[in-house]
């Protein structure tokens, strides 16, 4: 996790010449409300790779330049961005022996009474050659089976799903198979996972499909991979997500934003090992099309409601620019569709200005960023009030905190650290023992082991700040209840103060990745607190490359796991029994039928109003089972000169603040505020 290390290890901050700095601050000693907003950065100028921000300051600058399809608003709910509307639907596709049979099936549905069609939530019925496509107004429709029964007389063909355990080198071979004249008519869908594993939906039987695929590989003198039939259905159910783009939003060159840009952005980022929140959701995409101007249609392989939230963190880039800069991406900053754009740059400064099409003729000040500012420069800037925003460094934090003209404000949480238990270990199978060990920990004291003591104790398995978040306050340590839970599980302290169960002494193997001084410091703080209740802790540092495999193999009692917070409500891969057994991300090996059902219901829920209740049920079950103990989220800060932001008192900062929200506070709220909320169809 980026926040558990220094942001720029080994980088020497290059100070500006004192003369140059003095000239700069003199020019800014007396500044009007329309002069540049000056921001001090603790490190070098950002490279502005929208997928690899090196710090919280760079992340927020990128967020000004680039825009996703939808955002999370101040109230934690989905809000408009490039898209002004969104809507979920569901397609049900059946294939028939002939186009005439497909048309007959369509007529059977159109002939149904109006009341029945309404109860089915039917939006449209259409034929595409030998296929019948039925569109429902909402995904996960429970009446799909009824519709299939109504067209059974037309004899829809059965679809067989074939799983091909191949690597990425086989992808061109399989794509050629799907296009070939002998196989295109029977191959209805072709999907690939990141590792090259392929699934084919075909109207052939499993045995027929297996045979032709093996012959296809053998005819090319290739070793046939493992080919397995995995299921059979009479209709393919695929969720459809439509985004209606805002006509006024354009690229800086004036060209329109289209589905091609969305598709090109995903084609760029998915094959690369970059941190991509919502990657699991993007893997489920079957196609991205533009049925009409301004409409982006995304069809998914399966019903997965968190897919919508994934779009809140993906900046959309122009396809034409990506085509020209594929080789130098990362060294050249792409243009964005956000409200701000880079207007000027020199070795130590960077300027952003509001996009002309969005400034509406207003005199909007530019944002001027100064890189690698030293404590001396910060001190001069404070004395002359010549900067408006500053991101604290380790060297300047105390100085900035001490000035009453500045308000220190938190940024939204980006990462989380959990203490995960190996619930399959014989000693740790009892949830009372895991709960007792957790109750002995003081998160506030542990947070001081984080870099600069900047960690927010947090006690939820879901990300904070969303409409479905529980945002539970971390409970303080409770040694009395800890002792009670441990004794209920049969663990008592002996005369020497060691915790024992009969003759067995409590010894925990706490695993952390090697080379991470921050994790080591936190592990040592955990060991010290547990030592006070008689627990002996062995800290094992495992090479970072094999850390996850070590956890999957179950060679630990407890482990510190950190990562970027997900933009949605899918925690299923971490706690569902199907992802355990050493093959998935459920390294705690939690296996609970009730939890599995709750997790499945949550990711299948497409009604935003119902998601908080479903998330709360999952949260309650996880706290009862204790497969892990959430410890902290990260904490970044920004220093704000209050005099420059007269609208600051009206800004709610409880869940953190971003530059997107700070910049409007340059002017006081002089008119009633209207709250806009995007509605989804019921």
TrEMBL record:
Q: Which InterPro entries match?
A: Peptide/Ni-bd, SBP_5, SBP_5_dom
Q: Which residues form the Solute-binding protein family domain?
A: 241-578
Please list the GO terms describing molecular function.
Answer: peptide transmembrane transporter activity
For this entry, the protein name equals Solute-binding protein family 5 domain-containing protein
Q: What biological-process GO terms show up in the record?
A: peptide transport
Please report the organism this UniProt entry assigns to the protein: Brevifollis gellanilyticus
Cellular component aspect of the GO annotation? ATP-binding cassette (ABC) transporter complex; outer membrane-bounded periplasmic space
Any Pfam family matching the protein? SBP_bac_5
């Amino acid at each position: 996790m980026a926040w558990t290390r220094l942001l720029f290890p080994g980088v020497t901050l290059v100070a500006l010449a004192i003369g140059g700095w003095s000239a700069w601050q003199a020019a800014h000693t007396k500044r009007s409300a329309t002069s540049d907003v000056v921001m001090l950065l603790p490190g070098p100028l950002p490279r502005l790779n929208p997928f690899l921000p090196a710090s919280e300051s760079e992340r927020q600058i990128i967020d000004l330049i680039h825009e996703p399809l939808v955002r999370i608003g101040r109230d934690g709910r989905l809000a408009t961005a490039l898209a002004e509307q969104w809507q979920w639907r569901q397609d049900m596709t059946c294939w028939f022996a002939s186009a005439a049979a497909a048309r007959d099936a369509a007529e059977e549905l159109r002939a149904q009474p109006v009341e029945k069609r309404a109860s089915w939530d039917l939006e449209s019925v259409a034929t595409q050659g030998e296929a019948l496509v039925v569109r429902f107004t909402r995904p996960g429709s429970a009446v799909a089976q009824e519709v299939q029964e109504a067209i059974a007389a037309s004899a829809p063909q059965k679809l067989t799903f074939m799983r091909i355990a191949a690597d990425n080198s086989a992808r061109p071979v399989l794509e050629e198979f799907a296009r070939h004249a002998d196989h295109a008519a029977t191959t209805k869908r072709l999907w690939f996972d990141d590792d090259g594993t392929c699934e084919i939906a075909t109207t052939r039987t499993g045995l027929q499909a297996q045979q032709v695929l093996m012959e296809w590989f053998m005819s090319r003198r290739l070793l046939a991979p493992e080919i397995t039939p995995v299921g059979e259905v009479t209709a393919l159910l695929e969720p459809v997500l439509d985004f209606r783009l805002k006509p006024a939003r354009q690229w800086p060159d004036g060209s329109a934003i289209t589905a091609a840009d969305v598709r090109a952005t995903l084609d760029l980022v998915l094959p690369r090992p970059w941190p991509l929140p919502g990657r699991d959701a993007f893997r489920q995409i079957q196609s991205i099309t533009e049925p009409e101007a301004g409409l982006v249609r995304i069809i998914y392989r399966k019903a997965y409601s968190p897919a919508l939230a994934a779009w809140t963190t993906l900046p959309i880039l122009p396809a034409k620019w990506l085509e020209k800069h594929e080789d130098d991406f990362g060294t050249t900053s792409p243009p964005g569709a956000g409200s701000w754009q880079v207007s000027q740059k020199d070795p130590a400064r960077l300027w952003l200005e509001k996009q002309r099409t969005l400034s509406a003729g207003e005199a909007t000040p530019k944002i001027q960023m100064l890189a690698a500012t030293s404590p001396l420069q910060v001190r001069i800037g404070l004395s002359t009030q010549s900067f408006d925003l500053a991101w604290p460094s380790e060297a300047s934090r105390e100085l900035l905190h001490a000035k009453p003209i500045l308000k220190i404000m938190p940024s939204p949480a980006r990462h989380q650290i959990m203490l995960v238990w190996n619930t399959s270990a014989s000693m740790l199978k009892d949830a009372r023992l895991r709960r007792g060990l957790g109750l002995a920990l003081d998160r506030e004291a542990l947070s001081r082991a984080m870099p600069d003591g900047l960690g927010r104790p947090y006690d939820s398995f879901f990300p904070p700040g969303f409409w479905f978040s529980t945002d539970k306050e971390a409970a303080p340590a409770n040694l009395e209840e800890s002792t009670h839970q441990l004794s209920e599980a049969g663990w008592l302290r002996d005369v020497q103060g060691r915790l024992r169960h009969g003759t067995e002494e409590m010894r925990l193997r706490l695993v952390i990745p090697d080379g991470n001084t921050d994790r080591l410091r936190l592990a040592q703080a955990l060991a010290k607190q547990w030592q006070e209740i008689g627990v002996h802790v062995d800290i094992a540092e495992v090479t970072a490359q094999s850390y996850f495999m070590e956890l999957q193999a179950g060679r630990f009692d407890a482990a510190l796991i950190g990562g970027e917070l997900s933009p949605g409500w899918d925690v299923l891969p971490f706690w569902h029994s199907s992802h355990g057994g050493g093959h998935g991300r459920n390294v705690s090996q939690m296996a609970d039928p009730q939890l599995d059902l709750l997790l499945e219901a949550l990711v299948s829920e497409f009604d935003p109003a119902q998601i908080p209740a479903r998330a709360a049920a999952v949260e309650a079950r996880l706290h009862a089972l204790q497969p892990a103990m959430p410890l902290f989220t990260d904490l970044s800060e920004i220093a704000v000169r209050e005099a420059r932001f007269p609208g600051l008192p009206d800004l709610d900062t409880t869940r953190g603040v971003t530059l997107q929200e700070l910049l409007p506070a340059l002017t006081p709220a002089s008119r009633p505020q209207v709250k806009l909320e995007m509605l989804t169809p019921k």
